[in-house]
Amino acid sequence: MQINRRTDQSITILEPVGDMGLYNLGELRAVLLSLREAGNKKVLIDMAKVPGIDSMTIGFLIQENDIFLNQGGELKLARISASVRKSLMVTETLKQLQVYDDIAAATGSFRR
Fold first, then answer.
1. Rounded CA Rg of the chain
2. pTM confidence score
3. Would the pLDDT of 112 be above 60?
4. Which of 34, 55, 70, 100 lies most in the core, judged by the most C-beta atoms within 10 Å?
């Protein structure tokens, strides 16, 4: 999985490309760990180019969200596809994550 990265002020925006599953979570895990270690506590994952996720990815995202919160940071998702939204709804985990329809709303929520 390719992960593009950019910064909007103090917010790191990650843009994974392709399906997210157990077989390719290692790279995202390493990126998130390095961001936390570097003190980057505001992270937005732009999911626009992620057509699908599996249950391991859902668990991973919830775990990472908890880690960020426990360390005084925030991890948010934006622009999830209909299939990703359905997966989060079916597993009853959508409410455990901060999800935004667009990048502007997501980045704006960090500044509040």
1. 13
2. 0.94
3. no
4. 100
